[in-house]
Amino acid sequence: MPTPDAFSPSTALTFAFAAIVCAGLLLKFWLASRQIRHVAEHRSSVPEAFATRIALAAHQKAADYTITKARFGLLEMALGAAVLLGWTLLGGLDALNQALLGALGGGMVQQLALLGAFVVISAAIDLPVTLYQTFVIEQRFGFNKMTLALWLADLAKSALVGTLIGLPIAALILWLMGAAGPLWWLWAWCLWMGLNLLLMVVYPTFIAPLFNKFQPLEDESLKARVTALMQRCGFAAKGLFVMDGSRRSAHANAYFTGFGAAKRVVFYDTLLRQLSPGEVEAVLAHELGHFKHRHILQRVASLFALSLVGFALLGWLSTQVWFYTGLGVRPNISLDLSVAAAPNDALALLLFLLAVPVFTLFIAPLFAQLSRRHEFEADAYAASQASGADLSSALLKLYEDNASTLTPDPVYVKFYYSHPPASERLARMPSPARA
């Protein structure tokens, strides 16, 4: 690890980074502890508003599931902080870069090897965490339906798809960083956004079917009901599909996928088994509410804007020596003026991706609050296009079937929850109506 001079920008970044990592970890631990304590304190009885609709056993299962995940999350957070510091201030990324420079020399091959090695090592570190979450926690509470063979097959497919898509994108961005001049970041942003829009089109047709089976919705009565709803809402989709979600999990969901003419509606088979036709219609109306209020467009626009700022910031930081040394990496600078230095582009990308979440953690509640507001707006729209009573019933069933606690800690909710808790959401549910 480099030893920057006292009071230099490099030293300031080192201390700021270490301090914010520690502060963020303490904040996460405090929030998780509040959540665990609050849920445990309310485990013995169902909240009065739900007493006639939720059994005590279901309430206690949700509490136990929430507490178990939160406690394991404490270990996961500690591991994440240790790995982050290991990659940066403790010299892990520097050691990996120096080893690959010695083996491959500088150039595109070495840079891609650095990115690839980082991804593989990070995935290997996360592997035990993912296995425990799936085959211990999810299994214990009856949600996991995957066999180890299916899990391994998914892992292999994900690795293959990630390599086939990610490697060319990484190579293009690295090439732009080295060849497109000072404004490379603008060209890279245009490329990134174009590829994201392309993936939104091709994902439903070519990528998602690699992992799940999608069958056209066969229930003619439900199909007619859903089609009529979409016509009332002015929404067109390429098709209505049922996904074999039960092959992997007992959790239920429904979603829109695709972009433009490639949009399609997807129902988990578990959702169709758990909800009545009226409740399915109400859930779909909620999703249509996001389109009606342009929430999806707002999120895409926000992604465009934030990624532009991110690329611009990366463009500047990648030229600052203190950015590398302050985060524990020796930049590839040759002391021999007759020898060209190896490019630092892959190092800059990795350091940026490692550091940004640390500095953006404290603005997360703002995005969570905006997301919860969108959910309330979508609920109101759903109640105007379908049955408010069916929407309330469907949401309560989904909370119960997914073991979502009815008594989360209010502070934890404000910081993390992208969806309002059941008590707030159902209390604000509009009266049943049909437009």
UniProtKB/TrEMBL annotation:
Q: Which residues form the Peptidase M48 domain?
A: 216-429
Query: Which residues of the sequence carry a binding annotation for Zn(2+)?
Result: H286, H290, E375
Active site per database record: E287, D379 (proton donor)
CC cofactor: Zn(2+)
Q: Where is the signal peptide?
A: none
Q: Which residues cross the membrane?
A: 12-31, 74-93, 113-137, 158-178, 184-206, 300-326, 346-368
Q: Does the keyword Cell cycle apply?
A: no
Q: Where in the cell is it found?
A: Endoplasmic reticulum membrane
UniProt lists the family membership as follows: Belongs to the peptidase M48 family.
Q: What is this protein called?
A: STE24 endopeptidase
Q: Which organism is it from?
A: Acidovorax soli
